[in-house]
Amino acid sequence: MSDERIILSGIVNQDGTVAIPGENKVILTLINIEKEPVTRINTSAGRITGNTSPPTNINLYILFSAYFSGNNYAESLRFISFIIGFLQEKNVFTSSNTPRLDDAIEKLSVEMETVGSEKLNNIWATLGAKYMPSVLYKVRMLTYDGSKVTEYRPLISASSDK
Q1: Could you tell me which residues are beta bridge partners of residue 83?
Q2: Strands of the 25-35 sheet, one edge to the other
Q3: 156: pLDDT strictly greater than 80
Q4: CB neighbourhood size of 34 (10 A)
Q5: Which of 2, 22, 108, 115 is 20 to 30 A from 44 (CA-CA)?
Q6: How does DSSP classify residue 71?
Q7: Is the Cβ–Cβ distance between 24 and 121 less than 8 Å?
């Protein structure tokens, strides 16, 4: 059994069943990817090399949801509070403050999104789940550069028992 308190997962499977293994966890769910409006790129800084199109900057919308059993409602609020506190304190991630951050990522900034009741209702309806205590964050600017895209292909080896 895993003792992870925060898991990366959808909330509901395509067949409508709950996608979360167990209870009393915080679920991190990607709910949208958005292209950052075009900004001026300083080509003299060497950002565009041998590529005719500029890199694409995207923003991610991530939802932290507290999936706790009914008698642990106060605990679910406590975990959401911990997340808000952590991301309030550390809202910029760089290689210097996050050593395991991918080298291709210069900086990620995280900001809480204000969600009105109508938008919140739409999010949960789209996810196909019942409301849980949650908080929505926008992660800004992940840069995709076509020259850096790689594909992982596992090695195929012949069986030795022919």
Answers
A1: none
A2: 6-8, 25-35, 56-67, 134-144, 107-112, 92-94
A3: no
A4: 12
A5: 108
A6: G
A7: no
